[in-house]
Amino acid sequence: MATRxxxxxxxxxxxxxxxxxxxxxxxxxxxxxYKQTDVLKRLIKDTGKIRPRRxxxxxxxxxxxxxxxxxxxxxxxxxxxxxxxYR
Amino acid sequence: xxxSYELAYIADPDLDEEALNSLEETVKSWIEAAEGRTTNVERxxxxxxxxxxxxxxxxxxxxxxxxxxxxxxxxxERELVxxxxxxxxxxxxxxx
Lengths: 87, 96
Hints:
Chain A is an all-alpha fold. Chain A is built from four helices and no strands.
């Protein structure tokens, strides 16, 4: 996806190598929990959106758990749905 | 049969210590009424909310570790929804 473009105007998007290993697989002591906002905050963009797997290298299984945890965290007002700047 | 659940709620920031304690007891009594038991209660104290809920910008966080039968959730959720002192709540399973 990152290497496509060309053709219709616009520069080629720079290719950023994704981390190869899932941080939650390689370190089983890291648990995904909606209350741990310090862990979850690193996995959202500054807009408040959930960062995609291709950015973070998280495996499918943990990304699912993560998405759920982030949504729970938002429900409990521990994390914002959006940031004012981007509203 | 009992299962492990975690019940978290945000209490109104305008409540005083006494009201918070009685709310905690009421929640415990709901759990007991549903034939469950509370093993631990964690108080986070007053925290700023990431966004305002019902015009409140902060709230008292309470996290209960409970064991209750699976069908207990519905009755407790109903009570929590109707309670005006509770801004938000969340019941999650703790079984891995």
